[in-house]
Amino acid sequence: MYSICYRSPLSCNSKESNKKMNSVKTEEDIGSIGLVKEQFATICEPPDELILDSGRKLGPITIAYETYGELNEARDNVILLLHPLSMDHHAAGRYAPDDRKPGWWDNFVGPGKAFDTSRFFVICSNCIGGCRGSTGPSSINPATGKPWGATFPVITIRDMVNAQKRLLEKLGIDKLFCVAGGSMGGMQALQWTVSYPDKVVAAIALATTWVHSAQNIALNEVGRQAIVADPNWNQGDYYGGESPRRGLALARMVGHISYLSDKSMHEKFGRKLQDRDEISFDLLTDFQVESYLQYQGLSFTQRFDANSYLYISKALDYFDLSRGHNSLASALRDVQARFLVLSFSSDWLYPPYQSREVVSAQKRGGKQVSYCEIQSDYGHDAFLLEGEQETPLIRDFLRHVREETHA
Amino acid sequence: MYSICYRSPLSCNSKESNKKMNSVKTEEDIGSIGLVKEQFATICEPPDELILDSGRKLGPITIAYETYGELNEARDNVILLLHPLSMDHHAAGRYAPDDRKPGWWDNFVGPGKAFDTSRFFVICSNCIGGCRGSTGPSSINPATGKPWGATFPVITIRDMVNAQKRLLEKLGIDKLFCVAGGSMGGMQALQWTVSYPDKVVAAIALATTWVHSAQNIALNEVGRQAIVADPNWNQGDYYGGESPRRGLALARMVGHISYLSDKSMHEKFGRKLQDRDEISFDLLTDFQVESYLQYQGLSFTQRFDANSYLYISKALDYFDLSRGHNSLASALRDVQARFLVLSFSSDWLYPPYQSREVVSAQKRGGKQVSYCEIQSDYGHDAFLLEGEQETPLIRDFLRHVREETHA
Questions:
Q1: Is B183 tagged catalytic?
Q2: What average pLDDT does this structure show over A370-380?
């Protein structure tokens, strides 16, 4: 199973599977997962700490996670969703009926959706190093009784995956039918297939890369320098005081620009002015895009911790799936999972060529891989927004793998 | 005269002109302009101040400039070079024999070079708003006896051009054979042809745009926010004290990333580590690209003023050649200058499509325009680095225009 398309992704599907897809669900069947509850698990308790890539030990570790759908008796219908940098374990549904927004990937997760909760038991866990419930730099270091801050150990994408593996063990789940994620989540999905080749049946990697490029590192470095240049950062020891929110806001602004495309910014903002008809001839904000970025930066500081940004961006920069191997192909040699790789034409953060390198390596290794470059003007964010194009591809891929592996 | 090429720019030239080009100069003829001296002129003295686009008046104004070559008797061999944001009037030659580096465009300016000083009288002036000798926010406000700081009037690309016009009047030069520049210099070149249509015979616009895009504005806004977030900025009033160098360094880091391409960063840095064989697993710099950016940021603060960065980046963001007109075509209607427009395939700051919009508008207006998209991996910086590809195009263009207008 190897296909490449550069136009409408529907052309990636055979006529037969299109027909199937169209007949599978009516609009009535497709809905929200409804109300959900976040859950917490404690893993890696001493003396069974997690051994990190750095050699340091971390434990006990709290993991925040959510689940959607039902685990079947065979325990073979589990999909693990992996979130991008600025998201968390709240992928779908609402905590309360009047929540303004559902989880970040709600359009993909629910009954009849791409990750169909009427068939699959979907788990989404918050990564370690984060600040949304899992252990990270804002957590209390049990040895000192104070927040870790910048003394928290540096973590990697592989460490995140190893922690997820321990969570699954705790939940009594031995094998994943699928790991799936976009951006940083896609890196984790790829890492899963390499770290635990016999534990993953299928992997879906969206808008991602197998190795952070020099440009990727450079963009993250600006964000890190903005945070550590903020006097409130105070060597990472700011909990209980003023946080380095201006530095974090700047980091987010840089990030946000890299998530959009030149064209999507042109279409969304162009040169429209903010609350005025004519340019002001002062140094204050004139353009809507300036206000928008400032707002994005500021609102991010209300839900994200600056130290977590440092640690997670560093994990991204360290990411190189071929680390410890001679090449990507060698790293992928033992992978058993079928791959679905989706890239997006206007994504300049993780451009399509990076996905194609994964696809080519898998193909050369005789592995099963489906690939689509989806035409989209949304830039990197496309993987969150092109549900209409992605859903049939994901749904068909999961069905094919299910049929093949249960034959 | 209208040509487009997407491959080797040499194919833009006819065989005949290639032959001519190759026979024009031997290596011995091509050399440095040698030692140069910066000069200063005072213009716009009250009551004849410069009326700015904002409506405010500015004067007296000091302009720093350099000249290379000799003004001929007819005074019709003048080329005005216009510098990009972070450069200045020192385009060519050295101030002293032991200067570590010559002017920023030395490979383009000198006897036998693209801007051949054995034929042309070349002037390069520092823009107003800058900090390298021309009046800007770090200059003394005559009304207060103190540096202007953030009370300096906001300026535009058109204001810069109007100041240059006044400088030329002072020098007794009525008409320009050519205006030429890259990036911000290219915007000024285009603005010259619109503001003074009967005063410019030819214009060369490299790696530039006719209007700052939402993405361009967004990148600049990050830089501005980094500067104003630095506590040392102090509302622009920092002269004599600590300057907001950390903020300015961040602004420069963002700018620098936008001047390079993904590919050039990959080739220059890849994932090479700085002074170590293995990743460090701490939050400090690991990668060469991080050290490089930090160095670029820091060294920029030693030669550039943070307030000037605010003002000049704002001038860039305000740039819209069609302002006050219905369209770009309408703005260009009265232009008499022949155009040479060069874009660079990997320039994502001012992508080739922005240049093509200028070319198309000129073509639709029945104007003379030559265009080449030069294949280069150097990103925006290509216009400074692809001398070998650019020189024959510039030299041929100037020769053709000279022949046509002196026929």
A1: yes
A2: 98
